[in-house]
């Protein structure tokens, strides 16, 4: 009986170690893939930094220009309000007559074909 328990215990330990080895191999594969992706990302970040280095000096100029435009907005808004107040559209108040064709009225031959004579 004790021999069976020893054999089963050793078998359990061997299966546990084999399961852990498979799990660690799987985790190692995933970590290697993540490391490769992070290396690619680091290279992309380096390229972005190189490209952004050419843009950085112009950003301060853009910010100054934006500040000037933002400072002028209240003045521009007031001028636009004056323009709109003087150019407000007032629709005509008299009723328009019905539209007539440019060529005048036309007699249809369809009425003659069916024997209808309009007044």
What are its keywords?
single chain; 119 residues; mainly alpha
Strand and helix layout:
Blueprint: H1 2-86, H2 109-114
Biggest sheet architecture: none
Principal-axis shape equals elongated
- The tally of strands reads 0
How far apart are the first and last residues' alpha carbons, in Å?
123 Å
Structure description:
- Residues 90-119 are annotated as: Disordered.
- Keywords: Membrane, Transmembrane, Transmembrane helix.
- The chain crosses the membrane at residues 6-26.
- The chain has helices at residues 2-86, 109-114.
- With 119 residues, it is an all-alpha fold.
- The protein is elongated, with a radius of gyration of 44 Å.
- The chain starts with a helix and ends in a 5-residue tail after the last helix.
Question: What does this entry show, briefly?
Answer:
The chain crosses the membrane at residues 6-26. By secondary structure, the chain is mainly alpha-helical.
């Amino acid at each position: 009986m004790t021999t069976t328990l020893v054999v089963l215990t050793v078998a359990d330990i061997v299966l546990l170690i084999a399961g852990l080895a498979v799990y660690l191999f799987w985790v190692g594969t995933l970590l290697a893939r993540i490391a490769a992706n992070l290396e690619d990302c680091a290279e992309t970040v380096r390229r972005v930094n190189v490209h952004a280095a050419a843009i950085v000096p112009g950003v301060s100029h853009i910010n100054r220009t934006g500040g000037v435009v933002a400072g002028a907005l209240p003045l521009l808004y007031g001028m636009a309000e004056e323009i709109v107040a003087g150019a407000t559209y007032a629709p005509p108040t008299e009723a328009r007559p019905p539209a007539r064709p440019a060529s005048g009225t036309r007699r249809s031959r369809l009425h003659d074909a069916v024997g209808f004579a309009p007044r």
